[in-house]
Specification:
The structure is a homotetramer.
Chain A: H1 5-30, H2 39-43, H3 46-72, H4 78-92, H5 94-103, H6 108-136, H7 141-146, H8 150-165, H9 170-184, H10 189-192
Helix pairs in contact in A: 1-3, 1-4, 1-5, 3-5, 3-9, 4-6, 5-6, 6-8, 6-9, 8-9
């Protein structure tokens, strides 16, 4: 009954994968079918499709980083579990925001709210990292690997900027979201070599 | 073909995780996107968002406790499987009730029904615990660990109160639901040390 | 790279569990929230809720039997995989039929169609059983365990009757569906002792 | 912490299975319940049901081939993970297109778009295969097994034809989609013997 590190993190990974898989697929469900059977009608769905691609990519990045993070983790505690659920909570809001942004992509409120939720998700990821380091102790592989976490800090700054600058123009926000996606596209070198 | 305890409970965990992951994510889908692209329109969704946070937390608590319970379990029987499905049945009603409460949060009927379903889910969890103890026999780790189960009994009493007092004011019920969430927030010390 | 029987059936189980978990949860999503915040409005949802309980139970029975069947299986072939997808196909139609029956429970067509799809699912389960026996060879644990499969044959007969008798009265069909649920409620003794 | 090939691909499989399970089930959800409780009303859903069967079969084929591909894979890299997400992205568009084609099956635009997305998914599968071969090195089991990949090339050609010929008649496209389904129905002999 003494679980090894791997089996200990196993069910957390399985549950997180389940939630992320549903989130990523449900966004596709919220892409409503074009009203008419014409390309013109399909084109009306283009903004929704583009924001869907952005959200799909961002969730994909979280899945990748989460995967690498948990592979380096060794012990589960109540703190780690709640930090993980907290991250999933913010990510679970992305589908409905994707729908909102897709329908009102010229407005400031949806873009700013989308940026704010991404900011909270990024903070939740950092909190999860800290909770895992605390659970594993000072010799944590995660602690060694994370180091100064430049990417994480830069992303936070960009999300703050995107949230604020949405009130100047939502297009600035969209450009900044794409920038973050590009920065994270390659999963973290810190873990990948492991 | 003689499965070990771990592989025996493995698929039950996997299925339960799948159902819980979908439940938690589907609630987010029922958060409808605000009608207009404005913060005023977002604010109209605030009650729905708050009840979503409550339901997300309660499902998260069930996931945590379920996880700890099944890690202490050693044998699967038909009784355990049906007791588990029975628990999932009541939890599966939470998304639609979350939607109902979010839309009519000043009314008594949704709050009372939500309380009643939480009461049934809590009873179903106790039935599942008993079924696992019966399957494992008197030396069950679960039996030793559960002991007098104070938290479980207190939760039942609070859910009964929340269901009845909804007819005085639904706000009393909401306060009681939050109280239960706070009580269970830290997963059960009884299992966590294992 | 030589997979054992367990890892060979592992991903088939995982995928099936995923599909069944989504099916069972999506039905709950199709339970629409009552229109008003009153018990009268909740009562209007009662037929939908009852047919949901029936469908939930039937899917639960399939999950249980599928679980026992695959634990006795040793080899995966293309035939087994397609037989499994064929079963999932029929089961995937149950949510939309549950919604249809719930909305028109006094009509013959929904009840008869529901019975017909259950009949096809039962046939698909028998085909899957045969495919696994063929893959495992004559010494198959499944073959020994199945024996004459009385329950399976009786269920088929009842589904045929329920489909036909829906045209006399859908209530006869509902009574027959409940009968099948009761028959299968205890998972198959043939596998359970294993 | 040195993961074996199997555990390395394990979570990728689990996540992909989750996404594919949700995709396949969500399509069933988009099958709307007939409006009336009559067979005439059910018959109006027939085109939607037929295209659902086609999409279910095509996703099933991807699941089968993906399963065989990943069982032959030994190493995960960032490239493999992104190639896998890229495949899932195209497949995630199939439910909404299935709904669109089902509602406008006599029009050219939905049929052509469906063909185009299937073409992109087929290309994404080839890219994933290449990424796995690159990760595994020249002695890759996948490389040996794939050989000249006749089926893959033929499918690509058929999808191109189906996309273009939709503008002559969507029925030609539907016939071609069914042709591809038949070609792939038996999973790849190249992997199956393994």
């Amino acid at each position: 009954m003494m679980p090894t590190g791997e089996s200990e993190t196993g069910r957390l990974e399985a549950f997180s994968d389940g939630v992320l898989a549903v989130i990523i697929t449900i966004m596709a469900l919220e892409l409503k079918a074009p009203v008419e059977g014409t390309f013109r009608s399909l084109r009306d769905r283009l903004p929704s499709l583009l924001i869907y691609i952005l959200s799909f990519t961002l969730i994909g990045i979280y899945w990748n980083n989460h995967h690498h993070l948990l592979r380096a983790a060794r012990r589960m505690t109540a703190g780690v579990m709640w930090a993980n659920l907290h991250l999933l909570f913010w990510l679970s809001l992305i589908p409905v925001l994707t729908e909102w942004v897709g329908e009102h992509y010229t407005k400031d409120a949806p873009a700013a709210t989308y940026g704010f939720v991404l900011l909270c998700a990024a903070l939740a990821f950092i909190i999860l990292t800290r909770a895992i380091i605390r659970a594993d102790g000072s010799s944590s592989l995660v602690a060694e690997a994370i180091g100064r976490d430049v990417k994480g800090r830069v992303s936070l700054a960009i999300y703050v900027a995107a949230t604020v600058l949405a009130f100047v123009s939502p297009w600035i926000s969209y450009a900044l979201f794409v920038t973050v996606a590009v920065i994270w596209f390659v999963p973290d070198r810190r873990f990948a070599s492991r």
